[in-house]
Amino acid sequence: MIKVNKKIEYGVLALLYLNSKEDKAASVREMASNCGVPEALLSKVMQTIKNVGYVSAVYGNHGGYKLTKTLEEINLLGITLALDGPIQVADCLKPGNETCPAKQSCTIVDPMNVLNQKIIELFQTTSLQQLSAQKELSVKEVTLS
Fold it and tell me: I need a surface site. Which of 2, 40, 66, 124 has the fewest CB within 10 A?
């Protein structure tokens, strides 16, 4: 099954919540409570998101995190790469993976690579602004040839 993992879901929810704060900081506890997600995992997610520059840490009594980029500047691919690494729909697409015994005669590696690239393109062109506006995402027909 191909799906977005919990870290990515929680990261998106937290960034959308921070956007609603209108330049005010929100603590991990506040975000976790309002988004209905576990505080411990969200804390790790936010640290990673801070390290890639989507948020900044605010220290003090009313500290927490606040956005440093607009929702239009943040795409789903950037969040995915930061929190989960490269997208790969098959193990054989992992760079340096030479362990597949059928690699020489495989008939699906090229079509899977095309599919993988289309997913990457969709994630790259999907901003959090689009997700927050609940716009229907346009997905072109996937052709594997």
Answer: 2
